[in-house]
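Figure caption, in words: inputs first, then the predicted bound structure.
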Amino acid sequence: MANVLRVNNPATGELIQEVKIHSEEEINQALKNGHDSFKRWRKVNAHERSRLLQRWSQLVQEHKEEIAKIMTLENGKPLKESLGEVDYATSYIDWYAEEAKRIYGRTIPASTESKRIIVSRQPIGLVAAITPWNFPAAMMTRKAAPALAAGCPFIVKPAVETPLTTMRLVELAHEAGIPTDVIQYVNGRGSVVGDLFTQSEYVRKISFTGSTPIGKQLIKNSADTVKHMTMELGGHAPLIIAEDADLDLAVQQTLITKYRNAGQTCVCANRIIVHENIVDQFAEKLAEEVKKLKVGNGLDSDTQIGPIINEKGYEKIVSQIEDAIDKGAEVLAGNQYDVNKDQGYYFVYPTVLKNVSADMVIMQEETFGPVAPIVSFKTLEEAIEIANSTPYGLAAYFFTNDYKTGTYIHDNLDFGIIGWNDGAPSGAHVPFGGMKESGLGREGSIEGIEPYLETKYLSIGNL
Ligand code: SIN
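Bound structure (succinic acid present):
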């Protein structure tokens, strides 16, 4: 196998850059260097760590256009979305630059007068992260910033499709003054690097964003060394529209959640569950708006839907659409493609499917593409049952202006992230993560630094 990764532009299939694959020896050395740096980095005081993170954030913002262009070239997303993602990525660095100074311990009243009890928090050690291609910047800083803020060294393996954004972010972290052994990247195939990370005695925590099957494998492989784990895995988000909902708002927010990044997000709505009395009206309005979305190269200023990342992703989307049509779904928009397998680009036009039913693959498996399957419901109990009938529990959305309906839906959904009349609930200040097979732990907000800290308790006696 060649010892380079060929990073291609998914909009044209053209080669952007070849990137060296690190050897096993180099990766093990990087892990050792990261581990060795822990002794020094944990001693850097919290205010200094905060200042270094602030400087990193500043440099990322100064290079915003450059990073966004790299991201659009390797990922395909529209430049406007890439610029938004650089801001999103920076917001995690900013948030955790502040949290670095708020890692508090506590004292506990002792059970005798001769004792004092002190609880302190300390960094857990070297963190190894594996990040996805769909948000090459934000998923990296969402892990790196809390790790560094907590006093943990950090090593990241970016997705093979999109290593360039991460490499640039790490360079800027070094330029900001964060030592080169405290934040590092390595490039290589997921299975090889994943094994080295999980088997290494130097790594104390694995943080992964990606598919549920790979997450399960990483959890199994980490058992022998009992590592801490944060897993942000697959989703299959339901989006419920109650009979009383503001339909224009529901359409507008569905467009945002469903078609961001050409539907290649873990939190995008994957099952649109609409009350039977409004389903036709909603479906028509959505299809009308979807047909206006401009598909093309992310570097063109009017593009709203970029390419699918690769052939495998494209094949999965097409097979789900075909399966749904074979089983009786009606196409209201899309089911159109612009594909050149020889050159290596795959565009799927945003698609709306009606009359979808539970037996269709699209209702059971994550699509990771710009397809909105619409199913109808009669009662709220039925809507909740459809919504929860999945092993996933990442994000869910619902639309209603009735507070009793909204409270009922919220209380009964088994999902970690819920948007009520809101298709864009993500942010550095909120706890992001899933229930069930969608993951372990939370990223962002005050919860997001906890997984990088150990609790140590001291009992002072004989006072
Ligand atoms: C994801 O799809 O994994 C992340 C989306 C987000 O942070 O909003």
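The chain has 13 helices and 22 strands.
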